[in-house]
Amino acid sequence: MERKNPCLMKSHAMNSVKIVLGILAVVLVSCKKGSFEADAHYSIQLSKIRNAYLTSRQELFKQNQVSVAAYYAAASNFYGVVSQSNYISTRSAYFNLRSSYLLLGPYLYGNGQFVLPGEALYSRIDSYPINPEYVDYVNGNPTAGIINDPVTYPFITEATVKSWDNVTGTNNRSCGMHVLEFLLYGEDLSNGAPGNRPVSDFNNLRRRQYFLFASMALRNDFLELPKQDGLKQAMLQAEPTAAFDCIMTGFLKYIKEDFAGKCIKKPLDTQSEYDEMSRFSDFTASELLVKTEAIRLFLNPRSLYISQTEFFLDDFIKEVDPDAYDQVMAKLEAIENELLSFPLDFDQAISDPQGRQQLTRIYADLISIHDLLAGFKSKVLD
Question: 221 and 65 in contact (C-beta within 8 Å)?
Fold first, then answer.
């Protein structure tokens, strides 16, 4: 029987140990930085964030399409049968559509490097403030508006409703979500209550036609959005750092310019209900809460996924700057608590001392969140 050389056996054993240790070293390294290989540019993490952004964006747009279809079905039913129950159902469908649209907010901005689908349509979809007198009667002018002027505006169709939009002044909008809000609720004539348009107003055929074709225009604008989406291909072809810069720049714009600036600071400064986000329906306080949820969902879109093992923006922030992550979460919770305990309608709050204090705190917390996330972005890209 051949005897094995002890020295040779020891050499093989040492080599085996080295191989095992080498494998362990690779595993340990891969467990760092959120279970990805650590490198100076976070390339794997950035690729994961880009993919999650594109998937989440697509899923939210799909959900929005469902809400659009449900709204248009309700609007069509109301056009066909003018009844109080159909009126209530249409208002409810409108609110659901608003909510699904507001969740898209962080995905509607970028850094100019990538063409975001629908950029040319958003002004028509969600421009405010609007001049209601351009469309229909208002207090003190019962014959105002396109609806009441069949001589100048004889034919009401989807095409004409779109053609009249924003042609005689920046607030003279003829279609979009806030025109429909005005048609559904009427002029808001009191602090603390929405407009009170009676259902009998829609016995007027031109008003009913206008409402239907403005609803059709909105539906078709939303249907155009997925058709224009070359964003996925462009982002996948670009460097992950470029995609991340677009994602974060858009997110920061949403927080500071849209949410904090336009929705809160501007009406606080002017103390005018005309600058309120949804002044006819008085949904503004609820919509601010939805916009806060949009921030949470952008950071952590796990609820949109079947798999719960993805790597999302909140994971990345915790990895790079855990202290900033904790502060962002605390600020978001503070904003939500303020909005949930909001004692007044928004149009009252902007002139009420307590309401103004609450809104000022919300604004300050949003700016803090913006600054914390801007610091995180710099750490990653610098």
Answer: no
Local structure of 141: helix, strand or coil: strand
Chain segment 262-289, per-residue pLDDT in tens: 999 999 999 999 999 999 999 999 999 9
Sign of the torsion angle spanned by Cα atoms 283, 284, 286, 292: positive
What does the chain come to in residues?
382
Cis preceding-peptide flag for 150 (omega within 30 of 0): no
Q: Any residues with CB less than 8 A from the CB of 38 and at least 6 apart, and which?
A: 29, 32
Per residue in 39-56, is it b (16+ CB within 10 Å) or e — as a string?
eeebebbbbbbbbbbbeb
DSSP state of 138: B
What is the H or E stretch that residue 375 is in? helix 353-381
Residues 183 and 147 sit within 8 Å (Cβ to Cβ): no
List, as one string, the DSSP characters of 239-283.
-HHHHHHHHHHHHHHIIIIIIIIIIIIHHHHH--GGGSTTTTTT-
| Closest by CA position to 87, among listed 95, 77, 97 | 77
The angle at the Cα of 223, spanning 118 to 210, to the nearest 5 degrees, equals: 100
Q: List residues bridging with 141 in a β-sheet.
A: 138
Question: How far, in Å, CA of 233 to CA of 252, rounded?
Answer: 23
Output the six-digit token pair for 63: 């959900």
Global pTM reads 0.88
Q: Which residue has the tokens 């920046």?
A: 170
pLDDT in the model for residue 118: 75
